[in-house]
Design a protein that fits this description.
It contains 22 helices and 20 strands. A hairpin with a 5-residue loop joins strand 1 and strand 2. Helix 2 packs across helix 9. The longest helix is centred in the first third of the chain and has 27 residues.
């Protein structure tokens, strides 16, 4: 009786220990499927998914996850041949390999062979361990459980995306992109075999290291295994074995650096597709760099360029400096630096005036005058210190005359114009009101960013609708906000693209070089610190700034001479066939003949007439008062007496 009781107690104890051990083993061998999938690297790419920047993860590793259906069959076979030939038939562990490894380890007195299957390697990557038998046992249990949770295809996908490939690269896709500069789907047989050779000893077999002979031996061993398993033919094996070990330079993508640096890091996760066109970006960088020596002679060491696609407001190219380096403060991003606007805001004043009833033939005073402003007496002068008397709006804007612009803003009201400028996104100091700038608002005492100017000019290109610049393809298209009428936008565009309208001050600087008519405006700040040129076609807006980041003056470099040649080169890049679509004239814009001097309906004595554009119902009705029967003289109003 006592023996039976003891037996029962012993059995109970054994069962208890077994159950406890089983529960303990179940607990320590649990797996979380999410543990197998690594978080994405932050990769910033252009709109065609060409990488601009590839940020490492917190471990300093770079990886690119690719689904199993996009991994080439040859790639799968190479890794199976190298690491686990019975992968599709075992249950997570390979007993045959384990017996062979155990025998060898006992002979050597230490662990020299692991006999790990691909499943076990996947477990070890997700749950790193020390090389002990107890840890190995837990790994075996987890491998068995993993096979119950994941299909063979899923396990192979995890492994091929997380296998260490040396140089802080994990997964076949990341390794392929760096070692061979192409996706894994495009790899040749010998390249696949090389990748499959690396996991055995990523450090020792480093493709950039000094053991290329060992790497070649290991690669050829993989090819031999692939042939033995019937994955490749003998001819394929022999040809692949003759291939040298050639890898590309270890360079991680670092393109459009200023653009990527200014991106909101909170919006960049995984593969972030931007609006940049990398091919255009590189060409714009090259074009800007090609003018470096020319500009340096004029004491201009820096430049920035922005190219916008008008229809979408996508920023296609953004070059922040001549070179992203310490040279001449090149880490600064000139595209988002605030600089004096010079004359670049004038077109918006004239567009505003047209919408308020003025016409392109209105006579504006271009005289030296004094104005009372919130900060005292204001005496503007033209760039060349010359006064032109009575000028039309077309002449005043085309030749960028300061005195006539001040005359007009004084009529429109600088508070009124300040609201327009703010709606265009050009007000960078919310604490400043219109009185802070006064009449000088239109000729340069407002600080703006190049990217903002590009967006503002694109407003005219799309018929008066403002859209914020768009940087990320996943962001919704910006909502358009109408600032100007289609009619005034068209007329301003016509003036800015009219060669005859700018001959007074610019001569034929652009006329001989532009491939076609294009709307453009230049600007220069005080002491030639900043030179600007912004131009647009129906499709694109190009904005260029030239100057120095330390604020020093250039050697008399105007917007036309500084950025003009760069502008023309970029234009030729965008339009290699030298053809651009024309802007469509709104039906409510009409042409009417006027006196060339007064801008009014010509009388029989007017010596010269011209055709001008008008918004219907805003065209002049009054007859010219400048000319009488004697065509030799103009009867000008009294304010022009001194002139």
């Amino acid at each position: 009786m006592k023996l039976r009781l003891k037996a029962k107690i012993a059995i109970a104890l054994i069962l208890g220990v077994s159950i406890s051990a089983g529960l303990y083993l179940e607990k320590i061998s649990r797996i979380e499927v999410n543990q197998f999938y690594s978080p994405d690297n932050r990769i910033v790419s252009d709109q065609f998914e060409k990488p601009l920047r590839w940020f490492p993860d917190i471990k300093g590793e770079r990886h690119l996850w690719i689904s199993i259906d996009k991994i080439a069959g040859t790639t799968k076979k190479a890794f199976i041949a190298a690491e686990d030939q019975r992968f599709f038939s075992h249950i997570g562990i390979d007993p045959i390999s384990m017996v062979r490894a155990l025998k060898e380890n006992m002979i050597q007195g230490k662990i020299v062979l692991g006999a790990s299957t691909i499943t076990q390697q996947m477990i070890r990557i997700a749950y790193p361990r020390n090389r002990t038998y107890s840890k190995k046992f837990i790994e075996v249990l987890r491998s068995l459980r993993a096979e119950g949770h994941l299909s063979k295809e899923a396990i192979l996908e995890v492994y091929l995306n997380r296998v260490p490939m040396g140089n802080n690269l994990t997964g076949v896709e990341a390794a392929s992109r760096i070692y061979f500069k192409k996706p894994s789907s495009s790899l040749n047989l010998h390249e696949n075999a090389l990748l499959a050779a690396l996991p055995k000893a990523p450090g020792t077999l480093n493709p950039y290291g000094h053991n290329k002979k060992k790497l070649k031996v290991r690669r050829n061993w993989v090819l031999k295994r692939m042939y033995a398993l019937g994955f490749i033919s003998l001819d394929e094996k022999l040809r692949a074995e003759k291939k040298p070990i050639l890898v590309s330079e270890k360079v991680f993508p670092f393109d459009a650096p200023h653009f990527v640096d200014m991106m909101d890091k909170n919006k960049i996760s995984g593969n972030t597709k931007t609006t940049v066109d990398l091919m255009l970006q590189k060409r714009v960088e090259q074009i800007l760099g090609s003018h470096r020596k020319r500009l340096k002679k004029q004491k201009a060491l820096q430049g920035s360029v922005v190219v916008i696609e008008n229809k979408t407001s996508n920023v296609l190219a953004l070059v922040g400096s001549m070179e992203h380096s310490k040279t001449n403060l090149g880490f600064n991003n000139g595209a988002i630096s605030k600089r004096s606007a010079g004359s670049t805001l004038k077109p918006f004043l004239y567009a505003k005036a047209l919408d308020e009833g003025h016409s392109p033939s209105d006579t504006l005073e271009d005289l030296k005058r004094s104005y009372i402003s919130p900060k005292g007496i204001y005496r503007p002068v033209n760039f060349n210190r010359t006064s032109y008397g009575p000028v039309s709006m077309r002449e005043a804007l085309g030749n960028s005359l300061n005195q006539s612009a001040i005359y007009l803003i004084n009529q429109i009201g600088y508070e009124n114009f300040f609201k327009t400028v703010s709606l265009l996104g050009l007000n960078n100091y919310k604490e400043h009101d219109a009185d802070h700038y006064g009449l000088g608002l239109v000729i340069g005492n407002l600080e703006v960013k190049l990217i903002q100017l590009a967006a503002a000019y694109a407003t005219l290109a799309r018929g008066g609708e403002f859209m914020s610049p768009r940087f990320l393809k996943n962001d919704p298209k910006p909502s358009p906000n109408r600032i100007f009428s289609p009619e005034s936008s068209y007329i301003i565009t016509d003036i800015l693209s009219d060669p005859s309208a700018r001959v007074l001050t610019f001569g034929d600087f652009f006329n001989q070089k532009l491939p076609f008519k294009v709307a453009l405006k230049t600007g220069t700040s005080t002491h030639y610190r900043d030179s600007w040129i912004i131009g647009y076609t129906l499709e694109y807006t190009i904005a260029i700034w030239i100057g120095n980041f330390d604020g020093s003056s250039t050697n008399g470099l105007s917007g036309a001479k500084g950025g003009g040649p760069i502008f023309i080169d970029i234009l030729n890049e965008l339009y290699p066939d030298r053809f651009a679509a024309r802007f469509k004239k709104p039906e409510s814009v009409i042409r009417k003949t006027v006196c060339s001097y007064s801008g009014l309906v010509p009388n029989s004595s007017c010596p010269h007439t011209k055709e001008e554009l008008f918004i219907r119902e805003f065209e002049p009705q009054e007859k010219c008062q400048y000319h009488s029967k004697d065509k030799k003289f103009h009867n000008l109003p009294s304010q022009y007496t001194d002139w």
